[in-house]
Amino acid sequence: MTVSSNRSPRTRAWVVTTGAVALATTLVACSGSQPQGQSDDSGKLRSVKVAWSTSGDAYVPQSQGPWRFGEMFGLDQKRDDITELSSHATAVQLLLSNRAEVVTGSFTAFVKTIQEGHNIRLFCPIQGVLTDEVVGTGDVTTIEQVTDPNVSVAVDSPGGLVDHVFNHVFASKGLDIVVADLPNVQILEDGGLRLAALASGEAQVAVLDPFELAQLQKQRDDVHTLSVVAEDMDSVGFVYAATKEWLDNNQDRAAAFCASVLEANEVAIDDIAAYTEWSNEAMDPDPAAETLEVNWSRAKEFGVWPIDIETLSEPTVETDLAIAVKAGQLNESALNLKYEDIVDIRPAEKAMELINAQQ
Questions:
Q1: Which residue, 198, 231, 264, sits at the end of a domain?
Q2: Are residues 68 and 164 in the same domain?
């Protein structure tokens, strides 16, 4: 399908960045605990209030899709209703306190929240795999060196996306270990902190997206690729989630929202010029063209940007659960969860119907 990539005027900042709960509470208008109609007075589906748990720089189509293409599916998505944070915990707090309607996060982190008794469901894919790389610096040239006590590995907290990525990579490489087994780990929640630790030599191994990697390579000439994550990972990965109550009351909004994400992915995959334009709007200064091309090529080659809903399939969920339990990220009771306890597939299925109707 062909859709113009210049639907919106050029604007640098598409979200407001903050890590503070108090400030985020102000930025994300309260969605209220009382169910509202899905449509406004004009008949359009109401804009969805979204809290991103990390920077959207590495997720440009998925983060911008709702306001770029929501109109195609009857959704009046406002850019100002999308807030960027730097913490999964903060995003979930906003969701559970009804100050956000939809949040992003990793599969494992959401399942852990579900196990804590919160009625959250995954409903739309963002990226099943990543364009990131596991990199080493200095003398660290192989993934096996992560078991060396002298090699410091920068990760996020247990159950976080980086933790999840490492465990998938270890399994793919035939290493019978998980992050919890590593002898020398630094927990650094923010990607910028992990980048800084590699640059300074405080850490020697981390997961970086192509934009972070480009920054590191400007500071060091001894950076080595230990794993191209897209080659070594098959996962639900990073997803959109909402409360079960909200999804039950907002199936049409959720479906239109998800359709706009999948539509943006397809347009970006088909047109590097559109992806470049969107990325330049989101980042200041403009990212290097070579970095964008690496990210785009890897996304295209490995299907990183989903145009269907296979990453939310039951077999993929089961694989992720097994790896997370083995890693100690989730306790064994997670294996007793039913697919429907984790995923509400209805909006994603409806999203595919909406997209097919446009063809």
A1: 231
A2: no
pTM: 0.77
- Please, which pLDDT band fits residue 2 given cuts at 50, 70 and 90? very low
| pLDDT higher than threshold 60 for residue 13 | no
Q: How many CB atoms lie within 10 A of CB 72?
A: 17
Q: Are 50 and 100 in contact (CB under 8 A)?
A: yes
Number of domains observed in the structure of the chain: 2
Q: Which domain holds residue 217?
A: 133-231
Closest CA to 162 of 198, 122, 138, 214: 198
Answer yes or no: is 30 within a domain: no
Which amino acid, one-letter code, is at 152? Answer: S
Q: If pLDDT is split at 50, 70 and 90, which confidence band does 57 have?
A: confident
State the CB neighbour count (10 A cutoff) for residue 178: 19
Q: Are residues 247 and 341 in the same domain?
A: yes
Name, in order, each residue with C-beta under 8 angstroms of 260's C-beta and a sequence gap of 6 or more: 65, 66, 68, 69, 70, 72, 73, 75, 77
Q: Tell me how far CA of residue 170 lies from CA of 148, 152, 225, 229, in angstroms.
A: 15, 16, 14, 11
Express each pLDDT in 147-156 by its tens digit: 999 999 999 9
Residues 322, 219, single domain; the answer is no
Domain assignment present for 10: no
